[in-house]
Specification:
Layout lengths: L1 H6 L8 E6 L7 H7 L8 E6 L3 H10 L9 E4 L15 E4 L12 H12 L1
């Protein structure tokens, strides 16, 4: 789904960071390397976070019930600065059924969110 959205956004100013987090027992560096083939877009940079540092840092910023944020899609403007703690995103979506239903990600919402930060 992410790749289909990226194919619809022809804007070289878009930068995407995909952070693969060890959230499930089957998540490991090898699995993340294999999964990177699902999003081969040249605007995407892939990262492995086996220590769950990004997910743990994001959870309080998103103010959700998640102890660790994962399966989340965040939109930041070009002026966003990451320091000791992540900044609050302009918008975000998730794939966690128990979280905020209005933020549940689908292709249409993800495309609108991406286009929203580029306008």
């Amino acid at each position: 789904m992410v790749q289909r959205v990226l194919e619809q956004v022809d804007d070289e100013s878009l930068h995407v960071a995909v952070v693969w987090i060890a959230a499930l027992r089957t998540d490991n560096l090898q699995a993340s390397l294999q999964s990177q083939r699902l999003i081969p877009d040249k605007r995407v940079r892939h990262y492995w976070d086996g220590a769950q540092a990004v997910g743990n840092a994001l959870a309080p910023v998103l103010e959700t019930n998640m102890a660790m944020a994962w399966d989340v899609y965040l939109a930041y403007g070009a002026d966003a600065v990451w320091s000791d703690t992540p900044p609050e995103p302009q918008n975000w979506l998730h794939q966690k059924g128990s979280e905020e239903p209005e933020r549940y990600m689908n292709e249409e919402k993800l495309l609108a969110m991406v286009r929203g930060i580029l306008d």
